[in-house]
Amino acid sequence: MEIKNYISQWEERYHSDLTNNILPFWLTNGLDKEHGGVYTCLDRDGKLMDTTKSVWFQGRFGFITAYAYNHIEKNPAWLEASKSCIDFIIHHCTNEDGRMYFEVTADGTPLRMRRYLFSECFAAIAMSEYSIASGKQEYAEKALEVFHTIQHYANTPGLLEPKYLPAMKCQGHSLTMILINTASRLREAIDAPELTKQIDLSLEKLEKYFVHPEYKAILETVGLNGELIDTLNGRVINPGHCIETSWFILEEARYRNWDSHLVDLGTKILDWSWDWGWDEKYGGIINFRDCKNFPPQDYSQDMKFWWPQTETIIATLYAYLATGDEKYIEKHKMISEWTYRHFPDKEYGEWYGYLHRDGTVAQPAKGNIFKGPFHIPRMMMKSYLLCKDIMEKENESKSR
């Protein structure tokens, strides 16, 4: 494979797809010009199916549009969309105690609060990215305030309702991994030592508790000391989450001048998770596996969702940039060709979210409370920038 030509073609495609397809679809169909913020429950053609608003996506789209403004093009419509989502969060989605809701109505009336802290994480990265884009430091300070709220609730026993009753003492991978990305995004906007400290803590917990070499896997739920919980839920491997974790780690390795230990850890997790997730029969990354190879419990266990594919595209490019090992270009080719063959909707734009194992469409809607303008545009932006970095590295190596 002629790597420079291959990477150059993808660099151009990511930029074109982002600016001509994905962002216009959501800016046209999703923005709420009356109340502010974004709707995500859109049918295949962009028609609004439900005015319930996902608070996750107020933060997620607030981040995406500000990140696009900072890294792709100084488009004032993107900056305006980011501010609309963030203002909606501040005015309508935040409880008196600093916690954020999970679902609200179109005008911001609260509908549901969940025990998870992900609404807060997405709001924080949106505020920090908007701070960079707008030059308004008060948004970075607000992001850090939200981050402190996250830490307070995560680290204070009894504040959050436990997932299980006391008979099941456990801890989850999700918050540990997402705090790496949350803290690293905030660190771009504001200098606060607790951010790198949180990243260090999450990395330590990942290695100590969730990385299980005996299964060559990261487990989603483990005991308080990292021990295997030998149940259907305790044996779950989520390849998409693990691969997302791998590129979070590689991004932090790069921040630390390509720290060799983190490069080794990130690529090891990617390799393990690819082996668990890649469907040898049909292609694509499946949803769930059992670390002892029992049948997974989740009914969607062998479906192909949009987001594990996008995380794998980013991770393979990051791994190639970090190591120069061409096996990651081959993996990028495999996952990209499969993804682009099955997910994009050539008639109405954007991507389908939910496919059967064989790649046929399970349902055609473009969004709901969980799918919307985040993983796909993030993949396109990160991958576009990684392709540029790879091209620069390839040119430097040839000029020596």
From TrEMBL:
Keywords: Isomerase. It holds the Pfam family GlcNAc_2-epim. It comes from the Bacteria. Its EC number is 5.1.3.8. One of its GO terms (biological process) is carbohydrate metabolic process. GO terms for molecular function: N-acylglucosamine 2-epimerase activity. InterPro entries: 6-hairpin_glycosidase_sf, 6hp_glycosidase-like_sf, AGE/CE. Belongs to the N-acylglucosamine 2-epimerase family. This is N-acylglucosamine 2-epimerase. It comes from Hoylesella timonensis CRIS 5C-B1.
